[in-house]
Amino acid sequence: MSSHAEPLAFKANARRALADRDLDTALGRMTSGLVPNRARAVAALPEFEALRDRARELKDHVLVNLDHYLERFETNCLASGGQVHWCPTAEDARRIVLEVCRAAGARTVTKSKSMIAEELGLNGFLEANGIRPIETDLGEYIVQLADEPPSHIIAPAVHKTKEQISELFHRHHARYGLSQRQTEPRALVAEARQVLRQKFLDADVGITGANFLIAESGSSVMVTNEGNGDLTQTLPRVHVVIASIEKVVATLEDATTILRLLSRSATGQEFSAYTTITTGSKRPEDADGPDEFHVILLDNGRSALIGSEFQDILRCIRCGACMNHCPVYRSVGGHAYGAVYVGPMGAVLSPALIGIERGLHLPNASSFCGRCESVCPMRIPLPKLMRYWRERAFDSGAAPAAERWALRAWAWAACRPRLYAQGARLAARLLRLLGGSRGRIGRLWLAGAWTATRELPAPEGRTFQERWHAERERSDG
Amino acid sequence: MPEKALNVGLFITCLADLFRPTVGFAAARLLEEAGCRVHVPLQSCCGQPAYNAGDRRDAQRLARQAIRAFEDFDYVVAPSGSCAGMLSVQYPELLKEDPNWAARARRMARKCYELTAFLADVLKIEALSARYNGVATYHDSCSSLRELGIRSQPRALLSLVENLRLSDLDDEECCGFGGTFCVKYPEISTAMLDRKLDRILASQPDLLLAADLGCLLNLAGRLKRRGSDIEVRHIAEVLADMAAETPGIGEGEGP
What we know:
The structure holds two protein chains of two kinds. By secondary structure, chain A is of the alpha/beta class. Chain A has three domains: 1-44 and 308-399, no CATH class; 50-300, Rossmann fold (3-Layer(aba) Sandwich); 412-472, no CATH class. Chain A is built from 22 helices and twelve strands. Chain A has helices spanning 10-18, 21-43, 48-64, 66-79, 90-103, 115-120, 122-128, 138-145, 162-173, 185-202, 228-234, 252-266, 321-324, 327-332, 343-354, 361-364, 371-375, 382-396, 401-414, 417-435, 448-451, 464-472; strands at residues 82-87, 108-111, 132-135, 205-208, 212-214, 219-224, 238-244, 248-249, 274-278, 292-298, 440-441, 456-457. The termini of chain A are far apart. Chain B is of the alpha/beta class. Chain B folds into two domains: 7-121, 3-Layer(aba) Sandwich (Rossmann fold), CATH 3.40.50; 127-239, 3-Layer(aba) Sandwich (Rossmann fold). Chain B is built from 13 helices and eight strands. In chain B, the strands form two sheets. In chain B, strands 2-1-3-4 form a four-stranded parallel beta sheet, with helices on both faces. Classes of the chains: A alpha/beta, B alpha/beta. At the A-B interface, helix 1, helix 14, helix 17, helix 18 and helix 19 of A face helix 1, helix 2, strand 2, helix 3 and helix 4 of B.
């Protein structure tokens, strides 16, 4: 599988992914673990549905008052010794991160998991500027070694099997004198930990993401299961938080309400192993902490979604439940999407970041089965938002012309029920004839996409409306 | 049973109209046996293909056309969760900004039901004169299950069929049909379909039932291609005791 796929090549990417047996194994393991785990965690919390409603309200309130809460966040962050950088674009954010790193004389930076960093293409950018980024989240570390983007927003290496990771570590860790091949998960984790330990100590700058920004205190909140985020942010002299603007909530209380949903939805845990609240830089009485605390506030197109039909996607808390339950994601994995954000939430958010022309397939490759919406802790109506993108594509001409014309022609006929019924009668007879005594059609001109893998069951021969009116004229007046 | 006969408009759906009229007759039999008067006004499509392809204007045209044809009945019943969901959930959304139609769409939406939900929840059917000897598996369509919240109703109705044993799937997954999705992304659709069928086959049924012809054509088409002889039918055919009257979906009359 190409590691940096193009979203417009989704169909070809998907075909390659479907032929990848290892990927199927890895995705099958993910689904069979995370789906029942979430279901158990939700069943064990009677107020789960009420919490979803409350969380939606909290976030909706912040979104329509976003300027107010962001300014409060800034004021309180500055008061606690932090610095806040407003970045309208990804380019602005990259520039600020580089300036902070250069001012710190940084040669290496450690990073804990951040999707915003992926959105910025931060690793490649830092490398091009002579600074070495080191991923410290195990999954991110794995995909960094493999020179691949993450394929899932919370489980970046979910597409890899244990065997593939064993091989990858064996190849890359020899230079640290670790020449014995490890195959068991525990041993693989221990090996990664051993390699990363020194890097934590060597780093000049630590970059983390944020799950929430707290307006009332200017704090950032981060959840992890590995504790790597805490080492990333406390050991170096400079800590940079990169967060998008919609991460802000009013109070710590509000954040904890949403936290009760986050891990349950993501992995089925009641709470993640580490929840870290960070407020400002190191104070004189603190035992440790960074000398500088920077918060990058990234917009990158998000403020334009407020007030639009896509506003609801800004409630997303990046739990990944939508992709864990998505049958399309389960089939092709994250890389096929060719975008930073994948699965159902990505099918809505990514076109906003890269344009619907490039992201055309993302909201289209869905059967609208609705499982994503049914598990979304923030009650984001994902299929509805995907449909809005389809409408934008249809209206702007981004949708393929042949498809648009075929649809218009069909709709023209469907708006003329008598004509439509005549067409149905003709089709019923023709297909019945082709079906013959087997009652099904193995190959059909113009229906190759169906008949490549499926028989087409033949019609009974006459349409229902035709038969009903012939047989039941009396009863229907 | 209601005292005055209810006038029910049968929204037959494009697929049942074209592929499987038996479903319409089965639905009509069930409704009439429960004392309803069944009407079949001239109709075409609910507009879902246009709606889901982003062609909102054509979808609105078709919605208005269907409302005009059906709004005067006491109830509107469709033998499909997907089309019933379009009428009862999506029409009000689709026409919410149209001052002339928003209220009409909402008013009709309240009267629209998927067939099994109507039989169980409105007509409160507690007995059927139907029999089927064998083990059946029931597939919930995504629209029935998640858009309309229908789960217990088809199972309750199937429990009224003599000799039928339900081997239930503990599974909420999509069969991969998804309207035009199945031909726009056929490989992904087939991967979803095969995973679904593997679970269905593991439950070793004689009969596979669903309440949506889209799912059924998809499931039957792949089952037959894979060489399975499991019988595939719309649930209405079994509930109306009409399984003996016509071959299963994708099967011929003779050798």
